[in-house]
Design brief:
3 strands
Length: 79
């Protein structure tokens, strides 16, 4: 089975969050999991809209996001 690149990056992002079990910044995640920063925003947006992750705004007017894992179990339809 072959995954497209966007799906691969999404799995990496969720895997990282599940592993660290804490909120993590986008730079930390993209650097650790080799996810291009240009694609990170659209991938995280899709995961947020699907209820898989939650996005939080930073304090002091900073324009960065933090992510943490929302669901402890995720079901995938492979059909």
């Amino acid at each position: 089975m072959q995954l497209n690149l966007t799906t691969d990056y999404a799995i990496r992002l969720v895997l990282y969050l599940a592993t660290v079990e804490r909120a993590a910044g986008s730079t930390e995640i993209s650097d650790s999991m080799c996810i291009p920063r240009g694609q990170f925003g659209s991938i995280s947006k899709t995961l947020r809209e699907r209820g898989i992750i939650e996005t939080l705004r930073g304090t002091n007017g900073r324009s960065f996001f933090h992510f943490h894992f929302v669901r402890s179990t995720v079901h995938f339809n492979m059909s």
